[in-house]
Amino acid sequence: MNTYNVITPDFINLCITSSSQQSCCVERRFQKGITIDEFKGKLELLTGGNPATMKIEVYDKNDKLICKLDDGQRLLGSYPIDNGMKILVIDNFSRTEENLNNVEKFEISEEEYAKRSDTVKAFLEKNKLGKYNEEEMKRKAEEKKKEEEAEALAAQSCKVGDRCEVCVPNQPKRKATIMYIGKTEFKEGWWIGVKYDEPLGKNDGTVNRKKYFECLPKYGGFVKPAHVKVGDFPEDEFDLDEEL
User: Fold this and answer.
1) Cβ(196)–Cβ(174) under 8 Å?
2) Which of 30, 48, 56, 63 has the least CB density, counted as fewest CB within 10 Å?
3) Strand-pair partners of 206
4) Cβ pair 18, 88 in contact under 8 A
C-alpha cells in the first residue's frame, strides 16, 4: 500500500466551481491532510454534487489541467495543488436550483388527497389529534368563549373618562384616564384605550393610521381590560418650587 505525506503548509486556498455553474466560483480554505473522499464531502455542501458520482479536476490560473483527484484514500496535499488553483466538480447528477426548476411538479386535488391513507391528514384523523379531536376542540372553543365573555364583562364595567391604574405584568403601575372602550382593527378582542398621566405610552391614540382617541404623542396606549383597575386615582401634583 502506498503512503502519501502532506507537504507544508497545512492549509490551501482553492476556487471551487461546478460543471453546472462554471460562471460561479467560490474560494474556500481546506486542510491538506484530508482524504479525497473527505474533500468530496465538503464539495457536496458547496456544489450540490453527489460524492459517489462526482469527478474532480484541478486547473491552474491559466485554465490548464494539472491533475484529476481520482484516488479517494489519497490525501489532498499529496497532489500538485497550489493556492489559487481552480477545482472543477463534474457531476451530471448534481441537484442544482436550476435543475430542480425544470422538474415536473407533483400536484394532487383536495378530493384525491382526502382519499389517501398515507398522508399527515389521515394520520391525524386516525389518532384524533389536533383539529380532528372533537372533544379537545370543543373544550378549547368553550374556554375561548368564557374568556371572551369575561373580557367583555370587564370592559363594560369601565366608562370613558374613568380614572384608572394600569397593571400590566412585568411593568410598573401607571395612572391614566380611560379614553376608549371596544374592539379594534389591529387585534381581536376588547381593548381599553388610555391616556397616561406621563409620557409612558406608545402612541397618540392612533394605531395603524386609525384614530381611536385624542392625546399627546407617547401618552396613549391600549391594554386588555383585565389589566385596568378603575378607582380613585388622582393625578400626581408636582410642586416645582420644592425641587432642588
Assistant:
1) yes
2) 63
3) 211
4) yes
Provide CB contacts within 8 A for 213, sequence distance 6+.
179, 180, 193, 195, 205, 220
The helix or strand, by DSSP H or E, that contains position 57, with its residue range, turns out to be: strand 55-59
- Report which of residues 122 and 154 the model is more confident about: 154
Residue 126 in this model has a pLDDT that exceeds 90: no
Q: In the structure grid, which three cell numbers stand for residue 204, read together?
A: 397618540
pLDDT of 80-104, one tens digit each? 999 989 999 988 655 544 454 555 5
Burial class from Cβ neighbours inside 10 Å (0-12, 13-18, 19+) for residue 170 reads exposed
Q: Which residues pair with 195 in a beta bridge?
A: 177, 220
The β-bridge partners of 182 are 191
Q: Degrees (nearest 5) of the Cα angle 165, 169, 171?
A: 70
Query: How far apart, in whole angstroms, are the C-alpha atoms of residue 48 and residue 142?
Result: 51
The pLDDT of residue 131: 66
User: Is the dihedral angle over the CA atoms 211, 217, 223, 229 positive or is it negative?
Assistant: negative
Residue 80 to residue 88: CA distance in whole angstroms:
15
Beta strands 86-90 and 11-18 are parallel
Nearest to 179 by CA among 234, 114, 231, 223: 223
| Short-list 220, 233, 224, CA closest to 154 | 224
At position 203, the amino acid (one-letter code) is: N
For residues 178 and 27, what is the distance between their CA atoms, to the nearest angstrom?
Answer: 63
Which cell goes with 22? 462554471
Tell if the pTM clears 0.70, that is, is over it: no
Residues in the chain: 244
Q: Among candidates 226, 204, 202, which has minimal Cα distance to 213?
A: 204
